[in-house]
Automatic annotation (TrEMBL):
<dbReference type="Pfam" id="PF00004">
    <property type="entry name" value="AAA"/>
</dbReference>
<keyword id="KW-0067">ATP-binding</keyword>
<comment type="similarity">
    <text>Belongs to the AAA ATPase family.</text>
</comment>
<dbReference type="InterPro" id="IPR003593">
    <property type="entry name" value="AAA+_ATPase"/>
</dbReference>
<dbReference type="InterPro" id="IPR027417">
    <property type="entry name" value="P-loop_NTPase"/>
</dbReference>
<feature type="domain" description="AAA+ ATPase">
    <location>
        <begin position="213"/>
        <end position="333"/>
    </location>
</feature>
<dbReference type="InterPro" id="IPR003959">
    <property type="entry name" value="ATPase_AAA_core"/>
</dbReference>
<dbReference type="InterPro" id="IPR003960">
    <property type="entry name" value="ATPase_AAA_CS"/>
</dbReference>
<dbReference type="GO" id="GO:0016887">
    <property type="term" value="F:ATP hydrolysis activity"/>
</dbReference>
<dbReference type="GO" id="GO:0005524">
    <property type="term" value="F:ATP binding"/>
</dbReference>
<dbReference type="InterPro" id="IPR050168">
    <property type="entry name" value="AAA_ATPase_domain"/>
</dbReference>
<keyword id="KW-0547">Nucleotide-binding</keyword>
<protein>
    <submittedName>
        <fullName>ATP-binding protein</fullName>
    </submittedName>
</protein>
Length: 419
């Protein structure tokens, strides 16, 4: 049923001057859209959806998508372009998400983020226009699919900031083959088998055995032993969106809602929550509620990582449906250390006897520390030769001990720090 508004523009400006300024901009936008579509347009509101769609618009602009067109700007003295840096092209300019009217020719839909200035403050408000409801709904469905396809081209990073959730996409430039993931064979088989059943076979295993189509695993252990490498390998081996969510001190119920609202629309997909124990106390209740809501929907493969499992809220792992399995990523044993060091090519610098001694000498070191051992050996070989592996490893162990104890103030060691 059509409703008649109580107050019409420009009626009684003195009653609400702020509305007059607001309505002037919207009226101008509607007029130019009427010329484009040769018909009146309807104005819609969907705050949650629009925030997500503007992220997709940014991606489309960066990729020079011809489906999107800038037909006008709103204000003359508000910027219409944004400069950003890319590793491939240095600097590029794309239309600003603020103050430009974006028109989608296929659907006859337009979006604009208008800057609003009132009461000595400024903010932006999002508007969407379409000729009818059907066009609007088809547009939203297509934009979700566009966003999903875009997200499969890399890893989407969500970071909680003062200004809300900031997202960007990182291309997977260095694919991590599964063979390069250093884990216990049984654990590695178990994790990748569940990944394959979840994504590569369209969840047929879950349907066949009447298992809810969702999965949650927790990766825990000391830093530097391959949790991130495992996640990168998973992300690169599935043709599904991967979202990497970085929790910060700015994480709130609002950012939690935004993240989970996005990922549930992208299913089937992978959601990685890094350093899950760092969730602020004031946001934990909202997080647990959102987590239950997300995992109750099909298609979410949830991966949590932590270096400090003892700090995790027990409610997170003591309730079925949040995390199904917890895997400890341990310090590499003799077999894994040898495998890693041989993959690095230490045979170029060391004979077999010295290499075996090094494998035993490095017991208790992480994968990251083994990489530092390799770097030090390569540098010493390049500049000095012969190589003193005992001194290299002992110095690394001493540095590790002092880091853990925060014990730096000794005359015989401070000159080695270099900073």
């Amino acid at each position: 049923m059509k409703q008649n508004p109580l107050i019409t523009y420009p009626e009684r400006r003195e009653m609400n001057p702020h509305y007059h300024d607001y309505a002037t901009a919207v009226k101008k936008v509607k007029n130019i859209l009427k010329k484009h579509l040769n018909t009146e347009v309807k104005q819609y509101q969907s705050e949650e959806e629009l925030q997500s769609i503007f992220g997709t618009i940014k991606q489309m602009l960066q990729e020079n998508d011809k489906e999107i067109e800038v037909i006008a700007s709103v204000y003359d003295h508000v910027s219409t372009g944004t400069v950003y840096y890319t590793s491939e092209e240095n600097y590029r300019v794309i239309p600003s998400l603020i103050n430009n009217i974006f028109y989608f020719k296929k659907h006859g839909v337009a979006m604009v983020r208008i800057p609003i200035y009132q009461n000595h403050e400024d903010f932006e408000e999002d508007f969407i226009f379409a000729k009818d409801d059907e066009s609007m709904l088809l547009f939203l469905q297509d934009m979700i699919e566009t966003q999903r396809q875009s997200m499969t081209q890399g890893i989407t990073i969500f970071t909680d900031t003062d200004d809300g959730v900031v997202r960007h996409r990182e291309k997977i430039t260095n694919q991590v083959p599964r063979a390069d993931v250093l884990l216990n064979d049984d654990m590695k088989t178990d994790i990748f088998r569940s990944i394959d059943e979840f994504f590569l076979k369209s969840g047929s295993f879950f349907k066949k055995y009447d298992i809810p189509y969702k999965r949650g695993i927790l990766l825990y252990g000391t830093p530097g032993n391959g949790k991130t490498t495992l996640v990168k390998s998973i992300a690169g081996s599935v043709s599904a969106p991967t979202v990497y969510w970085q929790i910060t001190e700015n994480t709130s119920s609002y950012s939690i809602q935004e993240v989970f609202s996005t990922v549930t629309k992208m299913a089937p997909m992978v959601l990685v929550i890094e350093d899950i124990e760092s969730m602020p106390d004031y946001a934990r209740s909202a997080f647990l509620n959102a987590l239950d809501g997300a995992t109750s929907k099909e298609g979410i493969f949830l991966i949590g990582t932590t270096n400090y499992p003892e700090q995790i809220d027990p409610a997170l792992i003591n309730r079925a449906g949040r995390f199904d399995r917890a895997y400890e990523i341990k310090q590499p044993d003799d077999t894994l250390r040898e495998l890693y060091l041989r993959k690095k090519g230490l045979e170029r610098f060391l004979d077999e006897g010295v290499l075996h001694h090094l494998i035993q000498k490095t017991k208790g070191l992480s994968i990251a520390q083994l990489n530092e051992v390799y770097m030090s050996i390569a540098l010493q070989w390049h500049y000095e030769e012969p190589i003193n592996i005992d001194k290299i490893v002992d110095d690394l162990l001493e540095n590790q001990r002092r880091t853990e104890k925060q014990d730096w103030n000794t005359d015989d060691y401070t000159h080695k720090l270099g900073f």
